[in-house]
Amino acid sequence: GSAAAAAQVAEGKECFTLTRRAEATSKSVGVKTFVMLPLDVITSEGEINNSTALDEMLDKLQWAGVDGFMVDVWWGLTERQPQVYDFGGYRQLFEKARARGWQVQAVASFHQCGGNYGDTCNITLPDFVHSVDGIWYTDAEGSEDREYVSLWADDVPIP
Prior knowledge:
The protein has helices at about 1-10, 50-65, 75-80, 90-100, 125-130; strands at about 35, 70-75, 105-110, 135-140, 145-150. It is α/β, with parallel strands linked by helices. The model is unreliable at about 15-20 and about 20-25 (pLDDT under 50).
């Protein structure tokens, strides 16, 4: 289907079976196809990672007939200081979708990316969060998991 073909195009693989979605087919019929963008599509500086290569990939995906993309919006990249937000890189990315007539599935990611075996991406939680006690998942032995904030930390003030 178009999802498998789109994945192959996104990975830069040759795909001789790739066929463009028929022009007569309405995009509102059937299941929409969204492609997950790389986890590090936005750099640690908050900018698009290799915009030229991304444009080439998005053009191939457009040719394949996808309906849009899914992207993680990382807390650690968008709120580096308490209550100071910067979505600049994401706004540029969303404009690329708008220019292609696509939809975007933006996922608010309030956890760390990377730091595990084999990970090629490392996006941490905001620095101001790491100094707060009492917000982490803790196991029976008292070991804290600092990759994400516990669901039970709603009443713990974070600066």
